[in-house]
Write a structure and sequence with these properties.
Length: 282
């Protein structure tokens, strides 16, 4: 297949990047991420000041790292500035975690359509992330939105919906099918393993392996579907292992695993899946 894979990490996940709790200078973060072979970093408007984002993006560009923006617009018009900034950066898209949250799907539809229209006006693609505490908070209402708005494309971080729906393990065929509907409409994917009660699990703990395998299966399904839909282009996968309180901590306040090493492990898994898909497709 002529399409390609780009694995990113998140600036948010690098502040701090491990259990030491030390926040590295941006210059060192950029060097570390580039040295590990990541294609770029997601820059999160919800976690980092605009001034800092404008400071680190040129550092990334000099190191050969790409950026895409994660936007948290609190008004419909509030997305426009982020679209223009991302376009200036040459970002592949903007991920939208919309903070305009009508109570009904009927109220959500015009908001989503307005953002899609704005995206077209500004010439910057957008993907709506599956995320809690935003307009796509709930799996069920998001599926209704997808039915109502065929042009709505997603960024799949399924960890949020595993917690949101408190899925029992093993998942029923019905629940698996609901998640597959999300993956079918997704043009980007994010890497974090959750359980029905925890948003971010340690990858090595024996009791977590059933969830690890579930998510690895979803990532494969997502990548395989993307490659079928796209004969060319770049598939973006984001390793996004967040710092505390996403990361669980012990009584001493220290994280219970090394998120940097875990992000590299996820990166390796995704690259292996992609290689297998390439070999299957000849």
């Amino acid at each position: 297949m002529s399409s390609s894979l780009s694995v990113f990490t998140s600036l948010w996940a690098m502040q701090p990047h491990d259990a030491s709790g030390v926040k590295l200078p941006y210059e060192q973060v950029v060097e570390m991420v580039a040295g590990a072979g990541f294609a770029g970093m997601a820059l999160d408007r919800g976690a980092t000041s605009l001034d800092d984002l404008k400071r680190i993006q040129p550092m990334m560009a000099r190191a050969g790292l790409r950026a895409f923006l994660v936007s948290f617009p609190t008004t419909v018009e509030g997305l426009r500035e982020d679209l223009r900034m991302a376009k200036d950066w040459g970002a592949p898209f903007v991920v939208v975690i919309g903070q305009v949250m009508p109570l009904t799907v009927e109220g959500m539809i015009p908001v989503i359509r307005a953002w899609i229209e704005m995206s077209e006006q500004e010439g910057m693609p957008i993907l709506f992330e599956t995320h809690r505490n935003c307009i796509t908070n709930d799996l069920f209402s998001t599926l209704v939105l997808l039915d109502a708005i065929p042009e709505m494309r997603m960024c799949a971080d399924l960890s949020h919906y595993v917690v949101d729906r408190e899925f029992w393990f093993p998942l029923s065929d019905h629940d698996k099918a609901l998640m597959s509907r999300i993956l079918t409409r997704s043009d980007s994917f994010q890497g974090r393993v959750a359980s029905r009660q925890q948003i971010q699990l340690q990858l090595d703990f024996p009791q977590h392996q059933k969830w690890v395998e579930l998510f690895r299966g979803w990532w494969r399904e997502g990548l395989e579907g993307w490659s079928r839909r796209n004969q060319s282009g770049d598939c973006v996968f984001l390793c996004e292992l967040g710092p505390p309180e996403y990361a669980m901590t012990g009584p001493d306040g220290r994280e219970m695993s090394n998120r940097w090493e875990e992000s590299l492990r996820i990166k390796g898994w995704i690259e292996d899946i992609w290689l297998e898909l390439e070999q299957m497709q000849g």
